[in-house]
Amino acid sequence: MHTTWGLENARFDPKTITTLGAYDGVHRGHRHILDRLLERKAELGLDRSLLLTFHPHPQEVLRRNNTSVELLTTIDERLELIAETGIDETLVIEFTKEFSQTSYLDFFHQTIVRALGSKAMVVGFNHAFGKNREGDAEHLKKIAPGMGIAIEEVGPVTVDGISLSSSKIRSALKERDITNANIWLGRPYTFSGRVVHGDALGRTLGFPTANLEVDPVKLIPADGIYEARVILDGKRWRSAVSIGTKPTTHENGVRAIEALILEFKGDLYDKILTVELLRYIRPQEKFGSLEELRQAIANDVAGMRGNG
Asked: What CA–CA distance (Å, rounded) separates 148 from 168?
């Protein structure tokens, strides 16, 4: 997949089929839209399938009162996942407050038609763009035919009667519902971080952990102990991951992410680890002693090994 950064670098091609959106998570609903985009490209005999997305994510620019941004995917993760779908090109447009005031009509005429040369579009049923999100599928169906652009609206993807969305996946992760989050994503939820120095308490307890520094815009699930896989240099290692404030040993309330990698021996400092969350094990607890904490960790590890 080719990635184009900036609208000023967009390439006009009159045989283009386009979709657009934030695509945070690139979940099964998103993939359904992109699959249909590729099908329509073949049906119409077009040459280029193009996804138009935004960076920074609109939430980062439009957030109010210093609210936190919690994304399922960083821009690099998003592009990597999109590339796996077979899309020809992704155009990443810089999202600014000024850009957010562009009307959907101006954006459609100037970008979709004039800059890209789109001949057709595929959009999700709940998609909207432009100032105040006025450019929904119904508006597109009214204005696009006059420009010779075919519009197809893709309905929702449902699992057990639940319509998939990025917001539902975010909520599941905040509720420790890793099972459904992974089902709706179509893969394990992941985050990556650099290994930084911690207090070395895990080594004292006989269970050395890697302390991870993660991109602050990335959604980290609710506090607790999780079974996971850690990817290092292309190899996956079974792991237990602790997310939380370490209440037994710390009172500062600072949240930390620690990975206990089973069977691994070696120096991890400054390496980048990717964590794939598999299931929730238990909540974080404040134990009465370090020995009680050590025994709880040992039980977690034994339970994981017992699961195969």
From this structure: 36
Q: What is the mean pLDDT of residues 250-259?
A: 84
> 178-185 and 166-174 are packed helices; what angle lies between their axes, rounded to 10 degrees?
160
**Alpha helix (H) residue ranges in the chain:** 28-44, 58-62, 75-83, 97-100, 104-107, 137-143, 166-174, 178-185, 201-205, 290-306
d(CA 31, CA 5): 22
> Is residue 303's pLDDT more than 90?
no
Single out the residue of 122, 119, 102, 89 nearest to residue 20, CA to CA: 122
User: Measured between alpha carbons, how far is 15 from 41 in angstroms, rounded to an integer?
Assistant: 9
Distance CA 157, CA 168 (A): 13
The SS3 call for residue 181 is helix
Provide the CATH topology of domain 166-306.
Answer: Elongation Factor Tu (Ef-tu); domain 3 (2.40.30)
Q: How far apart are CA 293 and CA 291, in angstroms?
A: 5
The domain at 2-157 falls in which architecture? 3-Layer(aba) Sandwich (3.40)
Domain boundaries, the chain: 2-157, 166-306
pLDDT in tens, 43-71: 999 999 999 999 999 888 887 666 778 99
pLDDT band at 22 (very low <50, low <70, confident <90, very high): very high
| Rounded Cα gap, residues 78 and 70, in angstroms | 14
Residue with tokens 């004039």: 114
Cα–Cα distance, 206 to 185 (Å, whole number): 35
